[in-house]
Design goal:
heterodimer; A: alpha/beta; 2 domains; elongated; B: mainly alpha; 0% strand
């Protein structure tokens, strides 16, 4: 086989391979959708973050507006401090609520930002004070059981 | 009795020392091939010829097996996911298992069988027919002229082949999931894109396939170069190439995965 044919085949092979890599990055991976551009950091501390992970989405009205950048445990307040990177295109006021929600019954956990009514906006490094802890299934079942128990106690007392 | 025990112990010791000796000479061979690879990069058509034999000629087997692997993943995954009412997650399952594991690993195993054996047999026969000695007589270094171009061809081909495998596998999974099982087209792709991370999954898969490329090619080259110059020696060396490459790939896969997975 002469050299030009060989070069042609190898060229086709390399082009197809590189195209497959780009395809994996664009079509299969999230290279196109995860670009947040320039971000600013907000902080929020939670008593319990449940299963929240670094890189979990931060959504407002269901749209991804940022990602969780860092989670660490604060020893003095015994709380989890979560750092959120928010795209600079979006602004949230100081009364914004930041509850941790779960997408679906068994889905991943994310932070939702619910705008409040304050005229001032949160700036880089600010702390969101209005939070709501993650829903922990065990706590929920525990509360349900104690409710049931107290209800049946009440019924017993009435019967007496 | 004592004689037999001593004999047995000697045999074990001999085998261990032999393995370590071979490992050492393989490492020296690897280093030598790296140092002498200047010529194969300067006269790049030597490498291009080898990319044709190792990469382009492996394309058919890689693409066909990728298609079937993806289709089987789609069918099996659907079967299980359907029980939990989340059959739309089939795209995530197919893409993650292909990009992270099956793409690099199955490609490397097929590569060892398709291209590695050919390299070993070719170099073993070159040695048996004294072509390598003839090159040395003509002051051509056989490692620079024969080994280094094949090494770089293998290292360049493997990530490309693995990417093609993953892409073709995802396409196979798509064929089963969307037209055959009737899963929504949009949910298939969007869930996949939401869960497959570029840095964590795609780049790590490419890194894995590069490492496997180095391991498979150097094992095939070394076994060929080290083969006894007889018909039986070459056939044994070819067998050893497949066995050692497969073991090296699976072992390295565990080591690389344990480094890459962030807990």
């Amino acid at each position: 086989m002469d050299r030009t044919t060989l070069d042609l085949w190898v060229g086709i092979f390399v082009a197809a391979g590189v195209a497959a890599m780009i395809g994996l990055a664009m079509k299969v991976g999230n290279l196109t959708s995860s670009n947040l551009g320039v971000t600013y950091a907000l902080q929020a501390s939670y008593e319990n973050i449940g299963g929240l992970k670094v890189r979990a989405p931060v959504k407002s009205a269901g749209v991804v507006v940022g990602r969780v950048a860092d989670i660490h445990f604060d020893d003095t307040s015994k709380a989890a401090v979560v750092t959120l990177n928010i795209d600079t295109r979006y602004h949230f006021d100081k009364d914004t609520m930041a509850p941790i929600y779960t997408s679906g019954l068994l889905g991943e956990q994310y932070i939702s930002l619910l705008p409040g009514g304050s005229p001032d906006n949160l700036k880089n490094g600010d702390k969101i004070s209005n939070i709501q802890n993650a829903l922990v299934l065990e706590d929920l079942i525990g509360k349900f059981l104690t409710n049931k128990a107290s209800e049946s106690n009440d019924k017993d007392k009435k019967a007496d | 009795m004592v004689d037999r025990i001593v004999k047995g112990l000697r045999l074990i010791g001999h085998r261990v020392i032999d393995r370590i000796w071979r490992l050492g000479s393989a490492a020296r061979f690897f280093l030598y091939a790296l140092v002498l690879s200047g010529e194969s990069l300067r006269r790049f058509h030597l490498t291009i010829r080898e990319i044709y034999f190792t990469g382009v000629l492996s394309l058919i087997i890689i693409l066909v097996s990728a298609l079937f692997v993806g289709m089987v993943l789609g069918l099996q995954g659907y079967n299980t996911l359907q029980k939990y009412g989340s059959s739309e997650a089939i795209g995530v399952l197919v893409a993650l298992s292909l990009v992270r594991e099956l793409g690099p690993v199955v490609t490397a195993l097929l590569f060892a069988g398709r291209a590695g054996t050919a390299i070993t047999a070719e170099i073993g026969l070159m040695k048996a027919t004294e072509q390598l000695s003839a090159m040395e007589m003509m002051a051509v270094n056989p490692i620079a002229r024969v080994v280094a171009p094949r090494f770089w061809a293998g290292v360049i081909s493997m990530p490309l082949l693995a990417s093609l495998f993953s892409m073709m596998g995802v396409f196979g999974g798509y064929l089963v999931a969307v037209p055959l099982l009737g899963i929504d087209d949009g949910a298939f792709w969007s869930q996949m894109q939401a869960s497959v991370d570029f840095r964590e999954d795609v780049v790590n898969g490419v890194i894995k396939s590069c490492v496997f490329g180095v391991a498979c090619t150097i094992i095939a080259l070394f076994e060929g170069y080290d083969a006894p110059p007889t018909a039986e020696g070459v056939s044994r060396a070819t067998t050893r190439t497949v066995v050692n490459s497969s073991l090296a790939v699976l072992g390295l896969d565990f080591v690389l995965t344990s480094f890459m997975i962030s807990v």
